[in-house]
Design brief:
Strand content: 15-25%
Number of helices: 6
Low-confidence stretches: none
Largest sheet: 7 strands, parallel
Helix content: 25-40%
Length: 164
């Protein structure tokens, strides 16, 4: 199913590894993020997810656990954003990437605040329409992608093939 997975850009002045924060909710979002690992090789990647034990299960480190939240849980959402802000300050990523959902969207927004490049790859499960987070990602993603050609539009998101 994978056409190709592009590696994140390296610093043009050197081939130094980039600091990347890769964020996804548990379940399918996390599994899709894990399929991006080959593209992240050679970079300093910190993973963040919402389900304890996924780091060990998939063999990724470092990995931080964050609260999951949705628009229906405003208190949890505030806690999640605070957690992500602390992570962003500690990691200082140059790139923030997410396959969804709400925690990934919040991470992209916070990454923009510190000048990180942001990448949103909407879940392949969203074949009929973009996810709500995917629609909102338009505002904070430097690279806004869908995996379905019929969901791509001239104004975004782009489709660069089924990468996952």
């Amino acid at each position: 199913m994978a056409d190709r997975v592009e590696k994140p850009p390296t610093d043009r002045a050197s081939s130094a590894p980039r600091k990347i924060l890769a964020v996804a909710s548990g379940g399918g979002h996390w599994q899709q993020l894990m399929r991006l690992r080959p593209a992240l090789e050679g970079h300093a990647v910190t993973y963040a997810t919402t389900i304890a034990g996924l780091d060990a299960q998939f063999g990724v480190s470092p990995c931080v656990l964050i609260k999951d939240a949705s628009r229906n849980e405003p208190i949890q959402a505030i806690r999640m954003v605070f957690q992500l802000a602390v992570i962003i300050v500690r990691v200082r990523p140059q790139i923030v990437i997410s396959t969804g959902a709400a925690p990934g969207l919040a991470a992209l927004a916070l990454g923009k605040v510190i000048g990180a490049r942001t990448i949103w790859l909407d879940s392949i499960a969203n074949a009929e329409k973009l996810s709500m987070s995917g629609q909102l990602a338009r505002r904070v993603a430097d690279l806004w992608l869908t995996q379905w050609p019929h969901l791509a539009t001239p104004n975004g998101p782009e489709c660069r093939g089924a990468v996952l």
